[in-house]
Amino acid sequence: MGLLDTGAEEPKSKALRYVVSGVALVLLLGASLWYFRRYATEKRTVDQFMQAIVAGNTQKAYQIWHPHASFAYQDFVGYWGPNGYFSPIKSYRMESAEVPPKGGTGVVIVVEVSAYDPFPKPEETIKFAQTREVQLWVERSDQSMSFPPP
Questions:
Q1: Which CATH number fits domain 39-146: 3.40.50, 1.25.40, 3.10.450, 1.10.3710?
Q2: CB under 8 Å, gap of 24 or more: what pairs does 88-93 form?
Q3: Residue 4 clears pLDDT 80, i.e. is over it
Q4: Most buried residue, 10, 89, 94, 130, by CB count within 10 Å?
């Protein structure tokens, strides 16, 4: 028998190996689930907001926005209304969600808006070139929305 040769494997060590592997797998799945769902609430808020905008329901969208007292409904319509800065909006696509590098109490969600329905594919060059990128700030505490700070 050589120095590196071993005898039969003990059942105790085999069971320990399965337990450690199982715990590692559960931790890996838990971390993956957390990573992909970490901004789910904020994304849901933006999704409800954008659905209201696409449907033309600016009153509902304004309620979802939870505006500051200084941001009147007319200001809101100036951005999101039928003749607003971002209009017309017929479809949208959420691109990303992240906490800004300098930190903060909210999440910046990047949304691409389009005047075409359905949202144009990259192969549709002319339509795709007309999409606009909008950054939205969603406060984590109360899900209020605004434009991100500079």
A1: 3.10.450
A2: 88/115, 89/50, 89/53, 89/54, 89/113, 89/114, 89/115, 90/54, 90/114, 90/115, 90/116, 90/117, 91/54, 91/116, 91/117, 91/118, 91/119, 92/50, 92/53, 92/54, 92/119, 93/119
A3: no
A4: 89
Structure tokens at 32: 């993956």
Integer Cα distance of 93 and 78 in angstroms: 22
Confidence of residue 124 (pLDDT cuts 50, 70, 90): confident
Q: String of b and e for 114-135 (b: at least 16 CB within 10 Å)?
A: beeeebbeeeeeeeeeebeebe
Domain segments of the chain as ranges: 39-146
Distances in Å between the alpha carbon of 79 and those of 14, 37, 39, 61?
64, 29, 25, 12
Long-range contacts of 11-17 (CB under 8 A, 24+ apart): none
For residues 49 and 64, the answer to whether their CB atoms sit within 8 Å is yes
Residue 37: what pLDDT?
87
The whole-angstrom separation of Cα 60 and Cα 52 is: 6
